[in-house]
Amino acid sequence: MKFKLYKPLALCALLMGLTACHDFEELNTNPYAPVYNPEVIGATPDGIDIDYELSESALQSLQGTENAIGSVFANFTYEGVYNDYQVTTNLTHDFYAAYFANNVSGFVTDSPTYRYRDDWSKKRWEHFYDNRTVEEYSQLIKTFWFCGKDRYHNAFYITRIYYAFLLSMLTDTYGAVPVEYYVKGAMPTDEKVKYMDQKDVYDTIFKLLDQAITKLHNTPATSQYSLGENDKCYAGDKEKWLRFANTLRLRLALRISNVAPEVAQEQGKKALEDPSGLMQSDDDNMKQTPKYSYITGGNENIYTLLYNWSANVVLSKEMEIAYKEQSSILDPRCEILWWRPTALEDLNQNEPKESDKDFNGCENGETALGGSYTTIYSPSRVFIKQDQRKLDRKHWWCYGREITWLGYSESLFLRAEAALRKWSAEDPKDLYKKGIEASFSYYQIGTDKEGQGKIEEYMNNLKGLEAFNGTDREAQLEQIITQKWIAVYPNGNEGWAEFRRTDYPRFMKTPKNGNNSGGEVPNGKFIKRLRYPDSESSNPNRPKEADTQGTRLWWDIADTNNGSGIYQTPNNFQ
C-alpha cells in the first residue's frame, strides 16, 4: 500500500471547506522502506486504543487547527458511503444485490456482468484508506483525544461508531483488509501493510462498538462539544447514535451467525439488551442526505442523476418478481419507485404521461434491448420537471432524496431473525409483519385511504405468512430475508452481503448469456467479492490465493448454486 504522509488537513478544511483538499505528499521511494512519521511516538499494532503520544509539533498543529474539526467531521459523515458512489457501489454492489438492471450497451459486458474494473475497485479502496481513514478519521480521533478528551468524549466515540460502520462495508466487499494502526489513528511502521483476516476484522468492529456504547453510557460531567449540524447523520444526538450502534451490532452479529454462532449470539444479545435499545422509528434511520438539498450545486441523489442520464438503470427482473409474487396484489412500493415502461419524452413532460403497460424488469446481461429501452423496461420514478429539492412521495426519487444505509424497517427484520434464532423471546412472525408495515410507512404509502387499502390487501394476502404456521425455521428465514431485501433497497452494500450470507431471495439470477469475470466466477454461479486493486499486488501480505471474485468470504459458508447452476436450498441453522 502506498502511503501518504499526513499534513494538517483541518487547516485546509478551515480555509477551503474541504473542497478538493488533499494536502498530502506521495512517498514514491522504496515501497517497503520504513515510513518516517514524526507525529506519532510509541504506536503499536495491537488493540484499538490510542497507545501513543504526539510530538510537540504535531500537538501544536492539532491545537492550531482545532476550530476546523467540525468541517472534517461533516465531510467524514457525508462522503463516508457516498464518495464516487456510481463506480464504487452502484455499478457493483447495487447490481450484485439485483436492485437494478443494466440497460446501457456500454455496461453490458462490464462490472454488472462481473468484469473486474481495477479503476473502480481502486477508488473504493482509496476513498476508505486515503480519504476517510488518514485524512479524516485519524485527524478526528487525534484531535478529540489529545485536545481535551473529556470535552470531546462523545464526539470521539461517535466517530469510532461511524468508522466501525464504514469498516464493516469494506471487509464485506473484500474480506481480509488492513486494520492495524489505522484503527487507532496511526500509520503502519512500514509499507508491508499486514492484512487482518475477516474474522479478526469483525472482532475489531465488535470491540469498537462495545467500547463506544459503554463509554457513551458514561459521559463525563464536563460540558460536551456539540457536533451539531456538522454531524450529517444525527446532528450530534447521542441517543440516536447509541440506537444506531446497537442496530449495527445486531446486523453484524447475524452476519456471522452461520460461521461463529456463539460469538454471534453473544453480540446479538448485547445489542438487544442494551438500555438504549434499537432503532425506534424512521427518525433513527442512518441516512445520507445529498448536498443538493442544502447547498446550491451540491452533490445530487445518484439514482435521480442516473435517470437524468437517459434513464441509465431500470427495474431488475428480480425486483419485478418480488413486487408481483409476494402477495396476491402488486407491491404498492413498486408504484412509488418505478415508472411503467414509457417513452422517456413522455415521462419528461410538465405532466408525465405514463403508459398503462405492466411493470417490467430487465435481466442483467440482456443485450437485445432494442429501440427506446424505457418503453420496454421500467425506469426509476423521477419527475424531472418539478423542483428537485421537493420531496414527493408519488415520485420518490429527486435530487434531494435521502438514501438510507440502515433503517427502522431493517431493524425489525433483524429482530425477527434474532427471535427465530432464540436470541430473544419476541415473535418472529409479528416482527416480520411489522418490518413490512414499517417499510410501507417509510414510503408514506398509508397516508391516504387508497394507500391504506393497498396495504391492508397486500398484508391480508401475504404468501409468506404460511411459513410461520409450521416449524421450519429455514422456510421462515427465507420469508424474513426476502422481505428485508425488498425493504433495504437500494442499499446494495447490505443487499448483496445478505444474499451471499443466506442465499435468499431464491429467485436471484446470474448474468444472462454468461458472465465476464475471465473465469474467476464459473458461469451459473454468483460473484462473491471484489478483487483487491492492482496497486496492492506488490504487497507480499496480500492474500493472493483468495483474491478472485469467485472466492467466498469468511461468513459465506456455501455457494448459492451447484456446479450445474441449479439453486441449492441453504441451511442457515447449522
UniProtKB/TrEMBL annotation:
PROSITE patterns: PROKAR_LIPOPROTEIN
Region (Disordered): 266-285, 531-550
Signal peptide: 1-22
Keywords from the named record: Signal
Domain of life from the UniProt record: Bacteria
Gene3D superfamilies: 1.25.40.390
Keyword Acyltransferase carried by entry: no
InterPro entries given in the database record: SusD-like, TPR-like_helical_dom_sf
Protein name: SusD/RagB family nutrient-binding outer membrane lipoprotein
Species this chain originates from: Bacteroides faecalis
